Amino acid sequence: MVNLARFIVFVLLFFSCSKTVAPTSDELMDIDIDLLRFEKKFYGELEIPLDSIMKDFPYFFPNKTPYHIWLNKRKDSTQQLLYNETSKISNLELETRTKKVFKYFNYYFPDISLPRRIISVQSDVDFLNRIIDSDTIMIISIDTFLGNKNAIYEGLPQYIRNELDFKFFESELINTLSYKVLPETNSRLFLNKIINEGKRILLKDYLHENHSKNLNFNYTKSELQWALENEKNVWDYFISNEILFSTENSLDYRFLNDSPYSKFYSSLDYGSPPRIGAFIGYRILESFIKRTNYNIQEILNISPQEILKKSNYNPM
Question: Quick one: DSSP state of residue 302?
């Protein structure tokens, strides 16, 4: 464990190393979106006939599901309780925060089209599909942003509950949009995977201003603190175990997937946050940015090997 003075140095470097310069408000074009709260129509406006809703939104009603199932679902007490919680997120806040991210995305990637119809739904807390982009329509599972202390989430593992908070909305939104400009890597090399995920996090530095840094990683503040304090230990572990250029699929499970903690099978397990590989990938990119003059569009297309070589990454 590093001492307090050294940790403060880590934090100062961490928050000051980025070269990103936020565009001014005059440089950001306004983005028009059509926000529809589907859960409000379905669960909150019971005077609207179900037939009418099904006609307007046929893609939400698979033919194989009997009519009476949907009818009963509208008045289900558990769903109504869930609706009471989702209705606490206002239209104005949801629209404002979505549009802000869209404005930044459009500034950096003006040639990439964005969905203009945004539909929020109750998904029975489908935390694996929190935001879905289908090019013209974006679906937001609004019941996955109710706060990690909400009784609705009772029974879910704590590491999952930690992320089910509206403060992580921008992070989730940017992560979804990132696939428009950064496809999933086909490489099996661990280095390529962590750099690719690091790029996804780096995008949040550009598209999400005025926020706590831990939000970009979907970390709590204590998880980010652990990552900063143990960065050198994690890197030394990767190097000494020759992990960077490994193609072992189990490394995804250990260091890139959602889980209660990263899996070193050593004392490093205790207190570690999940996805520590993506954190290291991001830190390599930060070191790379300090030593080069590439813009974000160029960085997304630079190979992981070149990034590692030019980054001179060596945590102290």
Answer: S
Predicted TM-score (pTM) of this structure: 0.92
pLDDT in tens, 251-295: 999 999 999 999 999 999 999 999 999 999 999 999 999 999 999
Strand partners, 37: 120
Q: How many residues can be counted in the chain? A: 316
Contacts 24+ apart (CB under 8 A), 73-77: 74/42, 74/43, 74/46, 74/50, 75/46
Residues 6+ apart with CB under 8 A from 314: 235
Q: Per-residue pLDDT tens for 181-198?
A: 999 999 999 999 999 999
Cα(194)–Cα(132) distance, rounded to whole angstroms? 23
Write down the domain spans for the chain: 4-23+188-311, 31-178
Cα distance from N-terminal residue to C-terminal residue, the chain: 13
Of 108, 101, 122, the C-alpha closest to 39 is 122
Residue type, 174: I
Fill in the DSSP letter of residue 129: S
The whole-angstrom separation of Cα 282 and Cα 308 is 11
Write the burial class of residue 1 (CB in 10 Å: 0-12 exposed, 13-18 middle, 19+ buried). Answer: exposed
On whether the CB atoms of residues 120 and 142 are closer than 8 A, the answer is yes
Residue ranges of the alpha helices (H) in 128-178? 158-161, 169-178
